[in-house]
Design brief:
The complex is a heterodimer. By secondary structure, chain A is mainly α. Chain A has a single domain, classed as MetI-like (MetI-like fold, Orthogonal Bundle), CATH 1.10.3720. In chain A, strands 1-2 form a two-stranded antiparallel ribbon. In chain A, helix 4 packs antiparallel against helix 11 and helix 13 packs antiparallel against helix 14. Chain A is flat, with a radius of gyration of 25 Å. Chain B is of the alpha/beta class. Chain B has 18 helices and eleven strands. A five-stranded mixed beta sheet of chain B has the order 2-1-3-10-4. In chain B, strands 6-7-5-8 form a four-stranded mixed beta sheet. A two-stranded parallel ribbon of chain B has the order 9-11. In chain B, strand 1, helix 3 and strand 2 form a beta-alpha-beta unit. In chain B, helix 1 packs antiparallel against helix 15 and helix 10 packs across helix 11. Chain B is globular. Classes of the chains: A mainly alpha, B alpha/beta. Chains A and B meet through helix 13 of A and helix 4, helix 12 and helix 17 of B.
Amino acid sequence: MTLTDTRARRSPHRAKIDLFPYALMAPGLLLVLFATLYPVIFVVQYSLFSTNVYEMVRFVGAANYVFLFQDERFLENLWNTAVFVIVGVALCWTFGLTLALALRRQSWGTAVLRAIVLVPWVTNQVVLALMWKLLLGGEFSPLNDLLRSVGLPPVNPFISLEQALPTLTVINAWRATGFAMLMLLAGLAAIPKEVDEAAEVDGATKLQQIRYVIIPMLRPISMVCIVTLMISFFNVAVLPLVLTGGGPLHATELLSIRLYREGFENFDIALAATLTVFLIAIELLLAALYFRLVKAGAQS
Amino acid sequence: MSSFIETRRAVLAGSAALASSFLLPGAGRAQAQGKPFDGQPIVHWSFLSPEGKSVREQAIKLHEEAFRKETGINVAFEIYPFAELARRLVTAVQANTQPDVTRVGWESIPMVSKAGALSPLDAYIEKAFDAEQRKDFLIDYSPALLTNGQKTTMQLETISHALFVRKDWLERAGMKPPRTWSDVVEFGKKVSGDGRWGYGFFGGKQQLVHAVYLQPHIHGRGGRILGDDGKATFTDDAAVRAYKFLSDCVHVHKITPPDVVNMSWEDQTDAFRTGKLAMFIDGSHRYRDHARAVGADNILLVEIPSDDPAKPSPTPLTGWSMGIPKGAKTPDAAWQYIQFYLRPEVQAANARIAGALPSRRSAAGDPYFKTPEAAYLQWWLDYTAANSEPMINVPTASRLTEAMVDALHEVILKPNSDIAAVLRRAAAGYDRVAQQQ
């Protein structure tokens, strides 16, 4: 007889709600709640005050939010972040799927290639940023030395108001491709061989197989992959900070960089807190979507 | 190899001189007073480590050994990137995890002080230095280093700026050292091409320290970046001419690569050290490393030019300070540590080993400053004495710099823009946000 059985016999009305497991979980749960809720309350409170660094000076209500939404730079940050996240995730998923399909078969060669594709994902973002800055950084880059030697003009997308954000987006998508590839490889492994074979027997071309069989069957894992990447891309700060510092002008300034600048360079804690609340709201929405998709995937 | 030998010689000479300085009568004051903090551990936050290899770090190693021997205080270093020190300090004071003593960068002093993260040092200073001795400090008592009239930090070293010029290229071009911006353009045009550029500056927003060259460009033309009321004034004719000059360097004279828009300070110094750049403005603290890279004989230091050959631009002064964080557990031991680094003999040793300009005038009385090896330091001290000003230092310095850099980006990326209008917009944007903060 187990402890639970004994307790259930003593109070038959509570048989369905056994508090004992909850009591065991309570300390950990409280700790997690404290560690997550306290900072949220902290930033919400700061966002409603004017501040002198960490000192709350005066209650200003929604004034910080009004300032933010009237700030053209914030709207630019929002647009940049939307492009960076949405286009970046789309590219990442496409690159990831292409590579997953190419490296689907198990062999020594594909194992090596998979590891190579994963390298950018596991490499420190500072290192990646410095590498790309060196490669594409204009006059002093080895790539441009090469271009000049064959009579071509040098390139530097990071000093172009039009090219800087797309370049940054592609570099970040390249960085995360290994992660997308891994998730999609896991999804591909779950597709029974018979499905592929049946499509072949029905006369489907490779492209048709991908379009009508593989992609629909990868839908649950693709959705999880996309939402995970979206959350991850929202929080990317180091790569653009080192690569462009948010410039030229504010062309590559994402919300995460603005948050860093306001919080840790300007020490405008009120504005940084307001930005944080805004980011938390977006990320909570994405997290809710994520759990819904995971649940749907599990049910299907 | 020769530079290695020179460095080694400097370190050895410095060690001997430093050791002997502590044996001189009066130098071992603390020894005579006993060791009130013997065995006391203190934590020091810095971006330089006594275990490091740079000349500045080698100097620190020697100083630390001497300090420990003299006081018995055990200093534990915690190393952070220099751009992170201030941020960490402010948050550490909030979380009560502050060190006993910390380095504070020039640009961070007003903000860190405004955040209440540093303890006032006035009581310690009054006990340690009389009014006459306080005059010995080069810029410590300038308004830029006082917070509400109080001292919260003491300068360990002075950083002065100058135009670094490739002397060998200048001689090959058969030209005299540039004294005006027109001279810079003329020499720049002669050396630009084949992957080489005449004049460099940095516009990347990775580190917001652009005032080191923007200030002399604007102030040297008779303008001001900030007014007495704290409002942005980089909208006058001098500022317009400065921005026009910088833009023209890229588009008209073609002596500066357009890549400066995303170049960091480090990128610029790398370009100089790798023989791709002829001229740029840099600080005295980096001279030794530049000399090691391109050869001391190939570097010429020139006063920062202006439009008037008879009157160079004022050199902006900065430097690293030390302070005691608010709530530090052992402030008295920390002050003893700071005081040690303020001794003229320690600063002179620092100049010998690391090439650092002292923060006290009396340190320059050391015989080392009369040697040919220290000629460049003496040159810098003369320039500083004749024509210098503290670099702009306000709590909203990062906002101010960013506004000025954004304006620079706009002027360079849109060469036909109305520079005066761009500057007015940038200044108004800074004033609006700075007032609100």
